[in-house]
Amino acid sequence: MTITRRNVLQLGIGLAAGSAFASFPGLASAASLNWDMSDEYGGNAQTGIVAKFFIAELSKRIGDELEITYHGSKSLGFSSADHFDAVQFGAVPIAVSQTSVLGGVEPFFDLTSLPFLAKDLAEARTLWGVSKPEFSRIFDANNMVVLYAQPNAPSGIYAKKPIDSIEALKGLRIRTYDANGTRTFAAAGAAPLQVAFSDLIPQLSTGGIDAVLTSAEGGIQLSAWDYLSDFTALNYAMALFMVHANEDSYNELSDGAKAAIEEVSAITEDFAWKLVTDSIEESYETARSHKMMVTDTPPQEAFEHLQQAGADLHTAWLEKVGERGAEVLAAFNAAKS
After folding, report:
1. CA distance 254 to 248
2. Counts for the chain of helices (H) and strands (E), in that order
3. What is the mean pLDDT of the chain?
4. Second label for 309, Cα 20 to 30 Å away, from 20, 63, 247, 295?
5. Helix 179-187 × helix 300-321 angle, to 10°
């Protein structure tokens, strides 16, 4: 068998969990009422704000039957790329994951980062609605329950100059957040490097990268003005974050608690999508207040060039996922028309 990073993570999780349960009899039963929630992003980021809203609303309904403790900024040691295995095998009971980095586990996850598929947040929510049954099936097949999803605001580029031409993209050492972004920007002539959000500050401060693909709000969390001078909106993609729980832990809850989680998850989705929608202009204004130049309308030349660079990814994705992908895209096109 070829040893991969995923094999090592699974082994480590299994040994750690086995050792813990062997040392403390009855811990599995007690731990089902106390969940640690892992998030690569910080508590002041939108994922953290939404997670805390979810926890507070759930507490109102079920009291101390389930206590969820939020851990942001990768403080439990797991990034989004680790969460699928970490939650599946019980290292953490619940996590917030940027799902577009999970394409290596299951190619269907790449749907959420196909470039220029959803043109705005309304379309992104429509796409989530038609794809949710398949995502739920994937999580269920891997001992997990998906609770809710929230969008990332449309991605643009923080850089030391406006990204308004093909020339501006050439050789640009840009951080991307998933494989689709890396392939798109490489095809556009840039020099992309896939970097987790939690690792961006060292890369920026040492000059390892000179541009960042993220949302306007993501740059605010980074204090991007300390390193870069411009933000160019491109509506490149609106990746999804999903909150998913270990199914064994979930099934130890009462039927009433499960019903409350389902109710609160729906309320949390509405809260999350409104939060992101309302935050876009606020993020632009914050960046401007720190003397950054904000180009809030996608420059046509760079936009069209990136569209062409990413066009083959749609075809490649369909070849990987087959009929289930074609059905989701057909449903998406029908729903938005």
Report:
1. 12
2. 13, 11
3. 90
4. 295
5. 130
Distance in angstroms (rounded) separating the CA atoms of residues 292 and 225 = 7
CB 3 within 8 A of CB 159: no
Measured on CA atoms in the order 112, 115, 118, 119, is the torsion positive or negative?
positive
| Gap between the Cα atoms of 44 and 216, Å rounded | 14
CB-CB neighbours of 188 under 10 Å: 20
Task: Read off the pLDDT of residues 7-52 as tens digits, 9 standing for 90 and up.
Answer: 545 555 554 444 333 333 333 333 357 999 999 998 889 999 999 9
Phi, psi dihedrals of residue 39, rounded to the nearest 5° = -145, 130
Give DSSP secondary structure letters for 37-57: EEESS-TTSHHHHHHHHHHHH
Instruction: Please report the domains of the chain, with CATH numbers, ordered by start residue.
Output: 5-153+238-280 (3.40.190.170), 155-237+282-336 (3.40.190.170)
176 in Cβ contact with 212 (< 8 Å): no
How far is residue 119 CA from its own chain's centroid? 18
3 state SS of 335 = helix
Q: What is the pLDDT of residues 243-257, one digit of tens each?
A: 999 999 999 999 999
> From the CB of residue 140, how many other CB atoms can be counted at a distance below 10 Å?
12
- pLDDT tens, 105-150? 999 999 988 999 998 999 999 999 999 999 999 999 999 999 999 9
Cα separation, 201 vs 221, in Å, equals: 11
Q: Which amino acid is at 128?
A: W
